[in-house]
Design goal:
The complex is a heterotrimer of chains A (222), B (373) and C (264). Chain A is mostly helical. Chain A has a single domain, classed as MetI-like (MetI-like fold, Orthogonal Bundle), CATH 1.10.3720.10. Chain A is built from eleven helices and no strands. In chain A, α1 runs antiparallel to α8. Chain A starts with a helix and ends with a helix. In chain A, 50% of the residues are buried. The mean pLDDT of chain A is 88. Helix content of chain B is 22%, strand content 34%. Chain B contains nine helices and 21 strands. In chain B, β8, α5 and β9 form a beta-alpha-beta unit. Chain B is elongated. The two termini of chain B are 45 Å apart. The mean pLDDT of chain B is 88. Chain C is of the alpha/beta class and 264 residues long. Chain C has two domains: 132 residues, D-Maltodextrin-Binding Protein, domain 2 (3-Layer(aba) Sandwich), CATH 3.40.190.10; 111 residues, Periplasmic binding protein-like II (D-Maltodextrin-Binding Protein, domain 2). Helix content of chain C is 43%, strand content 20%. In chain C, 48% of the residues are buried. Classes of the chains: A mainly alpha (222), B alpha+beta (373), C alpha/beta (264). Chains in contact: A-B, A-C. Chains A and C meet through α1, α8 and α10 of A and α1, β2 and α8 of C.
Chain lengths: 222, 373, 264
C-alpha cells in the first residue's frame, strides 16, 4: 500500500471538493434559475469534460498552463515554481475536469425547487442570500452532496489527465491511480490488488451515497 | 394617498393594460377566466414580475415606477402573498414557516409570535407539523399566517380557495371575513369564481386578456355589466338584441322594440332613441308563472313561450324557453326542481313569463360573433 | 446549517491540508530520480543501499527514457536522470537542461522471454520465433514502444537483423516502457516478447517464464547514461556519486548489466 500516494489522492479529492463546493452551488443555482438565451451553450461547455477524452483534455491543459503558456509564466513569476508537475497544477486540472460533476447534480436539485417556494421566500422578506441558506440549500442538499461525492470519487480515479499534467512525481503528483499502474509495471501484484480493492470500495460507497441522496431529492419536495 | 394604486402596461410576452386601486381595509377582487392575467398582476404588485412599464404605490410609498426607474425588490417590499398552491417551505414546521417572515423580530420572540399567528388562523396544536402532514385547508391557513407575519402593507391572495373542497371553502370564507376586520391593509384577491367575488369583495375588476373590461362593485358588475363581453364573463345568459324607441321619464321607463315586440325597461336615458342595444335580465328577475295561475294584468313585460328543454341538475332544473315571436334566442332560467315537478314542466309546455322591467339593463349592441358554446 | 463556526473549522482543515505535506517535503531533501523502466528492480536496490549507507532517501519514478526526456524539457522536477540511452542525456545537456553531458553507468542487454505454457521456445537467436511466425504459433508478441523506449528500439533492431520485422509487426503489442512490455510478455495474452535482461533477472519476473539472452551483435549497444539536472541538490549529487561506487556496481552486475570498463 503506497500510503503517500493514498494520502495525496485523498488530499487532492478533498481540496477539489472544497473548492468546487461553492463554485458548484453558485453556478448550479445560477444555471437552474437563469433563463438567458445562451444558457444551452454554457451547459454544453460545462458538460465538455464528460465527453472529451482525458488525453485530449490533458493535452489542452498542458497547452493552457504549461511552461510556455501565459498562465504558466504568470504562475512561475508569482510563486517561483511551475504549475505543471506540481500538486497545485494537479489541483487546478482536477477542479476543471470535475466541473460537470460539481455543477450538473446541483443544478438539477435547484431546478427541482418549485419557483413558487422561492418566490414565497422573497415575500417573507428573505434576500436571495438568505433564501439560499434557509430555504434552497436545505431542499437542494441531496444534489449538492451527490456533486461533492461524485467529484471526490472521480478525482480519486482520474488517471490520464493526472499523468499528463502531473507526471508521476512520488509525494507530489503520484496519486493512487497512478501508483496502481506503477505497481503493476513493477510486478507487485499484491500492492496493486490492495490499492485497487480500496478504490473499488470507495467508488461503491460513493455511488451508493449518491443513489440514496438522489432518492431523497424527490421525497424532500414531494 | 392611502391604500394601493397600480398601473401596468405591456405588449408581450403577457399583454397587460390595467389600472387599479384598493383602499386600506378593502378587498379588491380580480376576476376573469384563466389566461386573463390576474396572477400576473398580483405577482407584479409583489414585485415578482416586472412588466415593461408600470407603477405601484402603497400608502404613498413607491414600489415601482418605470418613469423614474424605481423598482423595489420583493424582499424589500412588505407584501403578504398567499400563492395558489400555498408554496409552504416543505422542510419547515408550520411554526417555522410563519417565523420565516419574522426576520425583523429578535430571534427569541419569533417562535411565540408565530404561534400567536397560527392560533389567529385556528391552527393551535398543529404548529410542529410539516406541510406534508397538514390538510389543504390547514396548509392554506399556514400560508395566510405566514403572509400576515410579514406585517404586510398589502395582502395578495391568489385563488386561495380553489384547491379546497366546498365545505372547507365556506368555512374559510367565514374565517377570512372574520379576520378582515383586524386587517387594516388593502387586500387583493384573484379568483375565477364570480360567486366568491360577490361574497368577499368590496370592489371587483373584470379581466380579459390582460385588460380590465369593467371595475366597480361586484353586484353592479353582475347586474349592470358595461358590455355584452363583460356580461358573458359574469355569467349572464339572457342577452337579447333590441332597439331603443323612446324614454318616459315620468314613469321612469325606457321603451324598446324587441323584434317588433315592445319591452319596458328601467329608465336609461343615456341611450338615444333609434340606437341598437343589447339588453339583459338576470335569472333571478324573471318570474315564471305557474300554468294554473294566470298572471296579473299589470305584470311587467308579459311574454309567452314554449319550453324547449329542461335539464335536471339536482335541486335545480335548467329550463330553456323559446319565445313566441321573432326572437330566435332562447331564455334560460333556473327553476327549483320541486316547483318544476309540481307544475309538470315538460318539453313543449306553454308558459308565460314576466320580465321585471327595473332589472333589465342595456348595453351596446353586441358585435356579430360566433354562436355561444 | 452553514453557521459561521463551521465555516471557520472547514477553512482551518483546508489550510492545514494545503500546507502540511508540501511543507514536509520542503524540509527533507528527498529528490525525485527519473529512471528508465529497465532499472525497476536494480535501482530500487541501489536506493535501499544508499539509504542504509547514508541514511538519506530518494524518490524513484520509473518510465520510458523518451518520456522522461520530454518531461525534463518541460522543467519536470527530476534531479537525476538514469536513461536507458545516453543520447537522451547528451541531447538534454546540449539544450541546457543538464549540468553536464553525464556519464555511462551501465550497458544493458535484451532477452527473449516466453511465459509459462507458451508454444514459443526461449531461443535468443530468434530462430524459433521465425518458425513460430511461419507455422502460426505466434499471435501476439510484446516489445517496448520503439518511439520513446530504448529497449524497444533495440528490440526492433534485433528483429530487423533476424529479418522478422515485417512479418512480426502486425502481431506486435507495445508497452509504454520496457516494464509494461515485460508485463505483457509474461502474461498469458502474448506468446512472449523482448524485454530488458535486468528485468528478466528479477525473481518476480523470472518466475513467470523462461528467457534467453539475445546476442549483442544483433542490435546497437544499450549504452545507459545518467546525468544531473540543473535542479540537482546535495542528496541528488550524493546519489549520483553512489551509483558509481562498488556497492552500487555490484547491484548493477547482479541484474546483468555490463559495467563501464568491464568486459561482458
Amino acid at each position: 500500500m503506497d500510503w503517500p500516494a493514498l494520502w495525496l489522492s485523498l488530499k487532492l479529492g478533498m481540496l477539489t471538493v472544497l473548492i468546487l463546493l461553492p463554485l458548484g452551488v453558485l453556478a448550479g443555482r445560477w444555471l437552474a434559475y437563469s433563463r438567458m438565451r445562451g444558457k444551452v451553450l454554457i451547459e454544453a461547455v460545462v458538460a465538455l469534460p464528460l465527453v472529451l477524452p482525458p488525453t485530449v483534455f490533458g493535452y489542452y491543459l498542458m497547452v493552457a498552463f504549461g511552461g510556455g503558456s501565459p498562465i504558466g509564466q504568470v504562475w512561475q513569476a508569482t510563486f517561483g515554481h511551475q504549475l505543471v508537475f506540481t500538486f497545485e497544477g494537479l489541483l487546478l486540472a482536477s477542479v476543471i475536469f470535475n466541473i460537470p460533476f460539481a455543477i450538473q447534480p446541483t443544478q438539477r436539485s435547484f431546478e427541482a425547487i418549485p419557483p413558487e417556494v422561492r418566490e414565497a421566500a422573497s415575500c417573507c422578506g428573505m434576500t436571495p442570500w438568505q433564501s439560499l441558506l434557509r430555504v434552497e440549500l436545505p431542499l437542494a442538499w441531496p444534489g449538492v452532496l451527490t456533486a461533492m461525492v461524485l467529484s471526490f470519487a472521480h478525482t480519486l480515479g482520474e488517471f490520464g489527465i493526472v499523468l499528463m499534467v502531473g507526471g508521476s512525481i512520488p509525494g507530489e503528483t503520484k496519486t493512487v491511480a497512478i501508483s496502481i499502474y506503477d505497481r503493476v509495471q513493477a510486478f507487485d501484484d499484491a500492492g496493486a490488488a490492495q490499492m485497487s480493492a480500496l478504490l473499488l470500495v470507495i467508488s461503491l460507497v460513493a455511488i451508493t451515497l449518491t443513489f440514496a441522496a438522489s432518492r431523497r431529492i424527490g421525497r424532500r419536495l414531494g | 394617498m392611502h391604500g394601493l394604486a397600480f398601473t401596468f402596461r405591456q405588449d408581450a410576452p403577457i399583454p397587460l393594460e390595467v389600472d387599479g386601486r384598493c383602499a386600506p381595509g378593502e378587498l379588491l377582487a380580480l376576476v376573469g377566466p384563466s389566461g386573463s392575467g390576474k396572477t400576473t398582476i398580483l405577482r407584479s404588485i409583489a414585485g415578482l414580475y416586472r412588466p415593461a412599464s408600470g407603477r405601484v404605490a402603497i400608502n404613498g410609498e413607491v414600489w415601482q415606477d418605470t418613469a423614474s426607474r424605481t423598482f423595489v425588490r420583493t424582499w424589500q417590499r412588505r407584501v403578504g402573498l398567499v400563492p395558489q398552491n400555498y408554496a409552504l417551505f416543505p422542510h419547515m414546521t408550520a411554526r417555522a414557516n410563519v417565523a420565516a417572515s419574522l426576520g425583523d423580530l429578535p430571534t427569541s420572540r419569533r417562535a411565540s409570535r408565530a404561534t400567536e399567528l397560527l392560533s389567529l388562523v385556528n391552527l393551535e396544536g398543529l404548529e410542529d407539523r410539516r406541510p406534508a402532514e397538514l390538510s389543504g385547508g390547514q396548509q392554506q391557513r399556514v400560508a395566510v399566517a405566514r403572509a400576515l407575519a410579514r406585517d404586510p402593507k398589502v395582502l395578495l391572495l391568489d385563488e386561495p380557495f380553489s384547491a379546497v373542497d366546498k365545505g372547507t371553502r365556506s368555512r374559510l370564507y367565514q374565517e377570512l371575513a372574520g379576520i378582515r376586520s383586524r386587517l387594516l391593509m388593502p387586500i387583493v384577491l384573484v379568483t375565477h369564481d364570480l360567486d366568491e367575488a360577490l361574497m368577499l369583495a368590496d370592489n371587483m375588476c373584470l379581466l380579459q386578456r390582460g385588460r380590465i373590461l369593467q371595475h366597480g362593485k361586484p353586484l353592479d358588475l353582475l347586474h349592470r355589466p358595461a358590455t355584452v363581453e363583460a356580461a358573458r364573463l359574469v355569467g349572464q345568459r339572457n342577452i337579447f338584441p333590441a332597439r331603443v324607441v323612446g324614454h318616459d321619464a315620468a314613469r321612469g321607463l325606457t321603451r324598446l322594440d324587441w323584434r317588433e315586440r315592445p319591452l319596458d325597461v328601467a329608465h336609461q336615458p343615456q341611450w338615444a332613441p333609434g340606437t341598437d342595444v343589447a339588453w339583459l335580465i338576470p335569472s333571478s328577475k324573471i318570474v315564471l308563472h305557474a300554468p294554473k295561475e294566470p298572471p296579473r294584468e299589470d305584470s311587467d313585460n308579459l311574454v309567452a313561450g314554449t319550453v324547449a328543454s329542461h335539464v335536471v341538475l339536482g335541486s335545480t332544473t335548467i329550463t330553456t324557453i323559446a319565445f313566441d315571436g321573432r326572437e330566435t334566442r332562447t331564455l334560460q332560467i333556473d327553476v327549483p326542481t320541486l316547483a318544476a315537478e309540481r307544475n309538470r314542466l315538460g318539453v313543449g309546455q306553454r308558459v308565460s313569463l314576466s320580465l321585471l322591467a327595473s332589472a333589465i339593463h342595456l348595453m351596446p349592441a353586441a358585435r356579430p360573433r360566433s354562436p355561444a358554446p | 446549517m452553514l453557521s459561521r463556526r463551521r465555516l471557520v473549522v472547514l477553512s482551518g482543515i483546508v489550510s492545514f491540508m494545503a500546507l502540511a505535506p508540501s511543507a514536509a517535503h520542503a524540509r527533507t531533501d528527498e529528490p525525485v530520480i527519473a529512471a528508465a523502466s529497465d532499472l525497476q528492480f536494480a535501482l530500487t536496490e541501489v536506493a535501499e543501499a544508499f539509504k542504509s549507507q547514508t541514511g538519506r532517501s530518494v524518490r524513484l519514478a520509473f518510465g520510458s527514457s523518451g518520456n522522461f526526456a520530454r518531461q525534463i524539457r518541460q522543467n519536470a522536477p527530476f534531479q537525476v536522470f538514469f536513461s536507458a540511452n545516453e543520447d537522451f542525456i547528451k541531447d538534454l545537456a546540449k539544450d541546457g537542461f543538464m549540468r553536464d553531458a553525464g556519464e555511462l553507468y551501465a550497458i544493458g542487454r535484451i532477452v527473449l522471454i516466453v511465459p509459462k505454457g507458451s508454444p514459443l521456445q526461449a531461443d535468443g537467436t530468434l530462430a524459433d520465433l521465425k518458425a513460430a511466425l511461419a507455422d502460426g504459433r505466434l499471435k501476439k508478441f510484446a516489445i517496448a514502444n520503439p518511439e520513446h523506449a530504448p529497449y524497444g528500439t533495440r528490440a526492433e533492431e534485433a528483429l530487423r537483423t533476424a529479418g522478422l520485422w515485417d512479418a512480426i509487426k502486425p502481431k506486435l503489442v507495445f508497452g509504454e516502457n520496457v516494464s509494461q512490455a515485460a508485463q505483457f510478455a509474461t502474461s498469458a495474452d502474448t506468446q512472449g516478447g523482448i524485454i530488458a535482461y535486468s528485468l528478466a533477472l528479477a525473481p518476480k519476473v523470472a518466475a513467470l517464464g523462461s528467457y534467453e539472452l539475445i546476442p549483442a551483435e544483433m542490435h546497437k549497444p544499450l549504452r545507459q547514461g545518467m546525468g544531473l539536472t540543473k535542479t540537482a541538490g546535495a542528496t541528488a549529487i550524493a546519489f549520483y556519486d553512489f551509483a558509481k561506487t562498488p556497492a552500487a556496481r555490484t547491484i548493477f552486475r547482479k541484474f546483468g548489466f555490463v559495467l563501464p570498463g568491464e568486459a561482458s
